[in-house]
Amino acid sequence: MALYSEKVMEHFLNPQNVGVIEDADGVGEVGNAKCGDIMKMYLKIDNEVISDVKFETFGCASAIASSSMATEMIKGKPVAEAMLLTNKAVAEALDGLPPHKMHCSVLAEEAIQSALEDYEKKKNKSE
Ligand code: FES
After folding, report:
1. How far, in Å, is the centroid of ligand 1 from the Cα of 47?
2. How far is the CA of 33 from the centre of ligand 1 (A)?
3. What distance in Å separates the CA atoms of residue 97 and residue 1, rounded to the nearest whole number?
4. Quick one: which of 100, 35, 97, 32 has its CA closest to 66?
5. pLDDT tens by residue, 74-109
6. Is the CB of residue 107 below 6 angstroms from any atom belonging to ligand 1?
7. pTM
8. Which ligand 1 atom is nearest residue 62's CA?
9. Quick check: 8 and 95 in contact, CB under 8 A?
10. CATH class for domain 6-126?
11. Backbone phi, psi, residue 35, to 5°
12. Rounded Cα distance, 5 and 36, in Å
């Protein structure tokens, strides 16, 4: 069996939503101390719905594929729904990741959580 599923290869070679949102409503950056990979998420939120999302990932193929898939999964979704996205759901949507690469999908979950927390903080400040 190939190490990576076709979906992982597809999202690694042609990642969706790569980039920066200059006036993002929420930004989150997380890293994994062991492998040194870093993921940054930018969210644009209108009326509690994620209208746009972009990411920058300095990391391995699984981290890039996970970011791409995770952003596709939360785009157009309500904030409350995006908060529930788990790394397991991201890995499943990619048709699985090798066990030693599961931590790469955890980065995607954490980056989104961190961007959503940033959004909530900013929102509370401006209220
Ligand atoms: Fe660390 Fe993939 S090896 S994020």
Report:
1. 34
2. 10
3. 12
4. 97
5. 999 999 999 999 999 999 999 999 999 999 999 999
6. yes
7. 0.95
8. 2
9. yes
10. alpha beta
11. -95, -15
12. 24
